[in-house]
């Protein structure tokens, strides 16, 4: 009986040693490549309970929304590991080069295989209507073991009514 307990104890210690020495998985090098675009509908609707989003934020709150389409030329994974789930987001930035703004729309994108890309990723949904001039920006976040991590951004150089 003692030998069985010793063997189980030794096996458990060996398993713990293997698990703790495994290298931590690296996040993928995911980027938005080429040009990007956005299209906004002129029809505005008020939604008291908000509209469901996919991606990093599923609820942006009540308010006025309009139909929106966002996209880019490519979304690439330039690493040797599969990316986590991605969140393709449309933001309104207060000035060109700002690093914080208002999230207008989020869209979930499946992970990308190693050294692969999505050609012309295009997502449609509903974006918050600000009725203010801001710099539009497309952001890309990846879900990793540490949570959502920012990966890349594409900022448009002209202010627009968002």
Biggest sheet, open or closed, and with what strands and sense?
5 strands, antiparallel
Structural class: mainly beta
Could you tell me the CATH topology label.
Answer: Immunoglobulin-like
Uncertain ranges: 12-25
Q: Helical proportion?
A: 10-25%
Terminus-to-terminus distance: 73 Å
What fraction of residues sit in β-strands?
Answer: over 45%
Radius of gyration from the alpha-carbon trace, in angstroms: 21 Å
Q: Sketch the topology as an H/E string, one letter per element.
A: HEEEEEEEEEE
CATH architecture: Sandwich
Number of helices: 1
Q: What does the overall shape look like?
A: globular
CATH class: Mainly Beta
Provide key terms for this protein:
162 residues, mainly beta, five-stranded antiparallel β-sheet, 1 helix
Explain what the structure shows.
The chain has 162 residues and is mainly β. It has one domain: Immunoglobulin-like (Sandwich), CATH 2.60.40. It has one helix and ten strands. β8 and β9 form a beta hairpin.
Give a nutshell description of this structure.
With about 160 residues, the chain is mostly beta strands. The protein is built from 1 helix and 10 strands, in the order αββββββββββ.
